[in-house]
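Example record for the data management plan.
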Amino acid sequence: METYKGHNRAPGSFEDLEVWQMSKEIVKQVYKLAKDFPKEESFGLVAQIKRAALSIPANIAEGFGRYHYLDKAKFYLNARGSLYEVKSHLLIAQELGYLKVESHRDSVGIDRDRVETGRDTVEIDGEKSQCVSTYPHKSQPISTNLHKTQPISRNIFSLIDTLSVKLNNLITATRKRSKEPR
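Corresponding structural encoding:
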């Protein structure tokens, strides 16, 4: 079941969705990182990564507002696509020398066991579904030899991988729900 502030209940708004809250955190981290990119990237990589990051919670919100389950699933798929786009942009920024990865403990309270197994419980319209992601992701270690670049923790990559699993589970549960009679 999606959780909101530690309470297990059906979400009343897209703001209650854990996946929306996580995506909002990614947006905040991306904006923080992007402000220190070189000025020549203002209309290139910075604009692209910000656009892609903003698209994640926007698609989750729009999907939440749709009536038909397959419409919901389509927007959740779009959110997942934008999430992968953000990860790609961050990896490219790292290779260009704009970011340096530092190792530190996750600060957003991610349950690592759930990420590694890809298991999640999702609630849609008051009904719980146990899901196993078709695409479980584990955070991959990222090594770098960059110097004099903006530090970035593994936290954002870990958050991206966790959100990817949660979106996969939400998509699976939503598609499953679409096959049931209303």
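Summary line stored alongside the record: The helical segments are 18-34, 45-64, 69-95, 112-117, 155-178.
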